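Discussion board: Methods & Data

I've been asked by a reviewer to show the raw model output for two of the constructs in my manuscript, not just the figures. I'm not sure how much to include, so I'm pasting the format here to get opinions. Each protein appears as its amino acid sequence followed by a line of discrete structure tokens. Is this the kind of thing reviewers expect to see in a supplement, or should I convert it first? Here is construct A:
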Amino acid sequence: MKRNLILLVMAMLAALPLAAVESAFWQVGSYEEFLQGTLRDISLNREGRLRLAPEARAVFSPDETLALSLATDKNKNIFIGTGHQGKVFKVDASGKGSLFFTARESEILALAVASDGALFVGSSPEGKIYRVTPDGKSTVFNDPSTKYIWALALDNKGNLFAATGDKGQIFKIDPSGKRALFFDSRQTHIMCLTFDRDGDLLAGSVPNGLVFRITPQGKAFVLYQSNYPEIHDVALDAEGRIYAAALGGAGGKGTPDLFPGKGAPVPAPGGVTTVTVTASTEGAGQQPQPTQTPGQANGSTSAGRPAPQTSAFPVTQIPQGRGSLILIRPDNTVETVWSSNSESIFGLAVRGDQVLFSTDSNGRIFELDPTKEGPKVTLLAQTRETLATRMLLEGTDLYVATSNIAKLFRLSGSQGKEGSYESPVKDTKFVSKWGNLTWRADAPSGSALEFYTRSGNSDRPDNTWSDWAGPYTKPEGQAIQSPSARFLQWKAVFKSSNGQGPDLSEVTVSYLNQNLPPQVRTVNVVSASDRPGSSSSTTGGSGNVSVTVGGSGSATMAGTGKGPTIISWQADDPNSDQLAYSVYVRGDDEQEWHLLKDDLRQTNYTIELSTLADGKYVARVVASDEPSNPASGARQAELASSPFWVDNTPPTVTAGKTEVNAAGVEVRFVAHDTVSPLRHAESSVDGADWVDANSDDGIVDSKTETLSLKPGKLGPGEHVIMLRAFDTAGNAGVGKAVVRITAGTASSP
């Protein structure tokens, strides 16, 4: 195994240019990763394996927006209830469709077929129940005086049960059409009905997400209360297990608005689907903690239904998600076997001990197999319609009704002959060169697997992208022929000629980002004594200079010449390459840069200014990504600092004319610096403390300054008057004048 992995990596690297050192790999191989792509006649199981899906095709498409209900008769005719024009269509066994019945009401939410072949039609709003004979003759069978009729179910005695809203009642209507209230749920809506093996009626409600079991005598027991507001559908498998589709979301919304004036048709969900298969067992009868008191509107009712006015159950907090599939075992224990933060379940169908469910994300059809090891979920097919509303089984064929564009799909029990999978688009962040495409798959005799690639520089494939390149047919690896670009997508085409297709488990693409140059963003020159945390200081102070890309600094003193000065910088690399730095300086009167140090890995360098002659300088930092790239492909960038001064020479201070008069003594000094302006001066008489001195022009700021000191009246004897001047670099120069005073006279050497 290890040897095979080494050979695989070597094969992938062989397709990359020799300059490549840091190759990247894009691997798709898990259920969550494959789910982000587009499946066309391809199924995906929980183990992350793609294979050909059951053959699916649209057998009928009425000119309607919504397909809301399905039923079948003993002659294998399929009836489709639609909205918003109240039409029912019939599709015969050959796939021929025709208009069968039109109600006065706009939505056909419920259908049921009697043993004599008559079709019961539940219409909404202000719903009525129609009875339509096989020859198309219709009568109003019953008017329950309710707004919505959500579901219809027939028992073995021919009694019809109607689930209604907006009062959450179930009515029982005998074969003669006589109606009686069978059960009042004290909920707003009863959404779904089905019978269990014992003849009890199962029902799901809104807004508290309750699953009821109701005896033939009308005695109800709550099997489960969901954290979601709506139980949209229920189904029973061959072992007596109950499956319930719970839906709703953080916004408190259950079923999408389906009726005119209640909102637009069902929107396609956005974002990446997150699906969770869990095995969290909950005790029967567990009730979530209430967060609202009965009677409060929570905005969670389905299909534009108003919130309940009264409720015997607390309105619970809606979880952060869209939907889940609940398993209720015969012993009343409960388990969440599937959940999603971006998909809601709308239709359920049972095939043996497997349950099929449809969602509102690309009209997906999932299959759940409750194995001993836990539930195994397979994405069986995608209709690529917005919403798969209802499903029913007819023999081995599964019929699926979709909405936003009403269609009827048929999924056969056998595997299709061809399908394709398009990967999500890979953003490599920069223009990249493509290496090899490799994959892992089982391909039985008579099957084939072909790959294609395309690339572009916009985040969604369009007519600016390259054409599909391929086919690639060697799983051990082939060089990708698509042009270099930032984005890449691959496609796998599955083919089968004998009913056994390939099984794909992993795809890997190698690529090399374009090597972009690094960026040097700032360069700073600062005296070590000025850095934070420095414990030393220089009398008279010192300066620093910095420059940032896009800005400039002014010439400033970098230090005193008596201590270290630090050149520091900030740099980064868009490819995250390791960088090496070279530091240079150049005098103002020089043409060539002089290297101070190369191959630095840290972002600072310390120099002694005493090694440089006095004058104005500029520092330059060159960053190179050669540590992560061969020399031939390495990139570099540079940035120079603003000018800084090196001043190692102190000012000169010369004593000039001295005068003594009745007011006292006056000594004139001249201070001068050849490199930098003077910044401060102070004087002392006879060794006393230094005191600030000012220039004759009022400010010490030039290279040459005249300072006239007037220490006042001095007693007879010799006196030493000193002046100390500091330049901008902090260098100090001292001059003195000696004054001798005798009674009535003064002298100076």
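Construct B, same format:
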Amino acid sequence: MPSKKEISLLPSEENNNSFLGRFLRWITSVGRVVIIFTELIVILAFLSRFWLDRKNSDLSEILRQQKAILASTKEFEDDYTSLQSRLRHIKKFYASEPNYVYNLNSLIQSLPSGIYFQNFNIKSDEKTSQISATVELYSFQEDAIVNFITNLKLNPDIDSVQVQKIEKKTKDSKYYLSLALAFKKV
């Protein structure tokens, strides 16, 4: 029987000290370390995937909750912003509004007894901001009308008084008076 031949891929003892033998030994030992290190990195990456997936799902849940909170408060925020805008306009309006109450009080102080108002209109001219009023009234006594007109002319808050109409109706014995007043600027 023929003799068995053995094939060995390992370098022979005599080649251990040669450059090629030393290089092969070095490359196989370093290669093993590199492969082990690479496998450790892959295993760590695989294991960290579970942690990262859990972290991602937690962050996604938090983000979903925050979006729901923002969506639920959006309507309130819009209402609040609208209210703030309306309040600014109201404040601006009241700041520029003429002082009608002061003028009415001044007119009432000039009013004698026996005068009855039928119609009273007060307005402010936007260009000049002059406050004017038209007054229609009646009285049963002529002296009350004379006193009223005199008091208006003496009133320091009234700039001008124009009598537009004085009329006496015989049926009901009333004196009807129509006036145009211009108030001084306060």
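Answer (T.O., handling editor elsewhere):
This is acceptable in a supplement if you add a one-line summary per construct. For B, something like: Strands lie at 115-124, 131-139, 158-169, 174-183.
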